[in-house]
Inverse folding.
């Protein structure tokens, strides 16, 4: 019975195409970090679509609509908490994936574009995190939004899009909502398609002398994905995310969502310019990696000076993050 069903599905959905060879190493968790990131992005899309049915992206209605979502909408509190924890989870899995492909020097020819697509996706994930944290429109969300305005003003004509001055016809919050729910996910989806296409065509940067079948790899990955989802589901029950008080304009007293705390730490040192300089330096370096570490040799860990720069940056981010976590809350944008 099961075999007949499998055969029928195979024939109609061309599932045999999934039976191509992949290196045996892909069965290890460290080779599944990219796949788990994709899985969590799927969770974010589904939970985000649900929340969007209840969310009101206007300064007047936003906070109340989130309160409604978590107190009245069926499973609203749970689904929102899963969305929140999945966002943190994506930051962890994508950072670990990036670090591991960097360690293996998998950005080398012919995988430069795979790497650049990855850098662009990491940038989009960063933007999705900061736009998402503004949407709840409590004190923390309001201050996140105020940082968009401050950053927009600092960067002149380039940043005017992120200020209220861009248009009087719609609020900045509504435009941030639209970026968070349409443009950024759309670009992310296109880049994931490009990333996956290149991985399929170029193969994995690993030893092909021992191989397995991709279908088994995907099944195992789905198993890990659902375990992760179960963990997030329990976390969302045990520690629901909640929401702060409605915003009081003109004060800056909160710290941002934890993945952004290293930028906050840099702002403590450099003022508002920290939020522009920090991410720009990190992403510029990541973009340059395939151009800086050239040559045939791709022995893992033998990056030469590029590896030392990467280590210095990683330690700086960690140090700034700890400073952001434990340092006193400070004012950066003079509200
Ligand atoms: C939305 C984010 C991302 C998703 C869904 C994703 C997904 C994947 C998957 C499924 C693989 C194949 C298996 C593996 O090595 O894990 C992969 C490989 C790769 N990824 Fe990503 N990735 C993402 C972000 C990134 C980032 C941020 C970078 C680096 C800046 C990156 C660079 C690469 C490279 C160079 C490979 C090829 C590795 C190899 O051939 O072994 N990816 N990615």
């Amino acid at each position: 019975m099961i075999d007949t069903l499998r055969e029928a599905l195979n024939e109609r959905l061309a599932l045999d195409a999934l039976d191509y060879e992949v290196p045996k190493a892909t069965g290890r968790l460290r080779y599944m970090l990219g796949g788990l990131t994709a899985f969590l992005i799927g969770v974010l899309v589904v939970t985000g679509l649900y929340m969007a049915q209840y969310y009101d992206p206007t300064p007047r209605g936003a906070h109340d609509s989130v309160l409604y979502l978590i107190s009245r909408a069926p499973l609203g509190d749970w689904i929102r908490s899963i969305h929140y924890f999945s966002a943190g989870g994506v930051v962890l899995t994508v950072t670990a994936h990036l670090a591991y492909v960097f360690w293996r020097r998998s950005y080398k020819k012919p995988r430069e574009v795979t790497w650049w697509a990855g850098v662009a996706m990491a940038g989009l994930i960063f933007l999705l995190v900061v736009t998402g944290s503004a949407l709840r429109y409590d004190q923390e969300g309001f201050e996140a939004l105020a940082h968009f305005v401050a950053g927009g003003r600092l960067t002149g004509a380039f940043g005017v899009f992120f200020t209220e001055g861009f248009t009087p016809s719609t609020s900045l919050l509504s435009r941030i909502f639209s970026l968070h729910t349409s443009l950024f996910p759309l670009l992310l989806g296109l880049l994931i398609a490009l990333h996956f296409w290149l991985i399929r065509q170029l193969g994995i940067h690993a030893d092909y002398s021992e191989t397995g079948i991709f279908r088994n790899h995907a099944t195992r990955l789905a198993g890990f994905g659902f375990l992760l989802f179960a963990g997030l589901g329990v976390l969302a029950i045990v520690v629901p995310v909640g929401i702060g008080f409605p915003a009081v304009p003109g004060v800056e007293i909160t710290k941002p969502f934890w993945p952004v705390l290293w930028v906050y730490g840099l702002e403590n040192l450099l003022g508002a310019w920290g939020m522009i300089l920090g991410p720009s330096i990190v992403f510029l370096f990541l973009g340059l990696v395939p151009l800086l570490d050239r040559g045939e040799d791709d022995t893992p860990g033998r990056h030469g000076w590029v590896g030392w720069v990467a280590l210095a940056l990683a330690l700086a981010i960690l140090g700034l993050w700890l400073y952001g976590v434990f340092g006193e809350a400070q004012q950066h944008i003079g509200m």
Summary: The chain has one domain: 18-254. The chain is about 65% helix and 0% strand. The first strand starts at residue 21 and ends at 23.
